[in-house]
Amino acid sequence: MSDTPPDRLSVNPKSPHFNAELLQRGIGIRFKGNERRDVEEYSISEGWIRVQLGKKTDRKGDPLTIKLNGPVEAWFESAADGAGEASEEI
Questions:
Q1: Which InterPro entries does the record match to this protein (predicted)?
Q2: What is the pLDDT confidence band of residue 86, given thresholds at 50, 70 and 90?
Q3: Which among 20, 30, 48, 50 has most CB atoms closer than 10 A?
Q4: Domain boundaries in the chain?
Q5: How far from 28 is each of 37, 60, 67, CA to CA, in Å?
């Protein structure tokens, strides 16, 4: 696996941008210089994140989200499988 997160990722399993394997590694998001833990979806190239709007839900029971525009940085919080093993042998 690569150490670069994808350009777009979502935590919603219904989204075409959902990837459970990448989410298990943990994704860190910095938006406008602040680290955020409440991001539902992001796009680095388009410069936006989606965050939940309180505890409100739509008629299907999914959380309502709001799109915020600004600079987005993303990184993996844990190393890829096998990446840490090579450094431990040295």
A1: DUF3297
A2: very low
A3: 50
A4: 8-76
A5: 8, 29, 18
The rounded distance, in Å, linking the Cα atoms of 32 and 29 is 10
Proportion of the chain in helix, strand, coil states, percent, rounded to 5:
15, 45, 40
Residue 49, Cβ density class (10 Å: 0-12 exposed, 13-18 middle, ≥19 buried): buried
Angle 67-31-84 from CA coordinates, rounded to 5° = 120
Distance separating alpha carbons of residues 72 and 30, to the nearest angstrom: 6
- For 40-71, what is the HEC assignment? EEEECCCCEEEEEEEEEECCCCCEEEEEEECC
Does 6 score more than 90 pLDDT?
yes
Residue 16 has pLDDT above 50, yes or no: yes
Structure tokens at 11: 């935590």
Q: What are phi and psi of 35, to 5 degrees?
A: -75, 130
